[in-house]
Each structure stands twice: as structure tokens, then as C-alpha cells.
Amino acid sequence: MKRIMRQRFVPGHYQRELHSKLKKLTQGSRTVEEYYQEMEIQDIVEMQNCVALESMFHKAVLAETQLKRRSSTRLNTEPRRPAFNRDTKSFAPRPETKPLAT
């Protein structure tokens, strides 16, 4: 039901605008993407069993390079969007039905 309501009443460009605003959002000099990558690196390192500081540093560097590679390929590929325009659908209300008299 929620999906149907969203398709009918939310313009198609609304989701794209929100995503664009999120990408442009910054705190200080860092973007949301940079903060997210840092948190991902911390999660990856915390899941590893690292006893020495050197091995923890090495795992963090590996995680950082993997995430940078993954994000650079994600930026180069545009998601495919359907060609139809949802904004052109017109809304036609249902005719009111009267209860049957018994």
C-alpha cells in the first residue's frame, strides 16, 4: 500500500533530489561519504583479530584501499532509470457509490 501511494503521489524527481542533497551534505570540510567510509573502515578493523598495532594498521590500510576502489567504480557507473515519467499520470477519483436501500 505504501509503495502504491508513493508511486501515485510522490513526484519521480523527488527521490533524485534527496539523493543529490545527501551527496552534497558536508560537516566542516568533510562530506557524508568520507564519514561513512571512515566508519566502514573502523567496522572492518574491529571485526578482525588484531593483537599488534602494526597488524591493525595494515588491515585498516587494506580496508581503506578496498573501499576507495569500490566507491570509485560506483561513481563511474550510473544507475539505470526507467524511461517513463510518473508525473504525467493523471489522478481520476472513483465515482462515489451510494449504499443500496433495503
UniProtKB/TrEMBL annotation:
<feature type="domain" description="Retrotransposon gag">
    <location>
        <begin position="1"/>
        <end position="40"/>
    </location>
</feature>
<dbReference type="InterPro" id="IPR005162">
    <property type="entry name" value="Retrotrans_gag_dom"/>
</dbReference>
<feature type="compositionally biased region" description="Basic and acidic residues">
    <location>
        <begin position="77"/>
        <end position="89"/>
    </location>
</feature>
<protein>
    <recommendedName>
        <fullName>Retrotransposon gag domain-containing protein</fullName>
    </recommendedName>
</protein>
<dbReference type="Pfam" id="PF03732">
    <property type="entry name" value="Retrotrans_gag"/>
</dbReference>
<feature type="region of interest" description="Disordered">
    <location>
        <begin position="69"/>
        <end position="102"/>
    </location>
</feature>
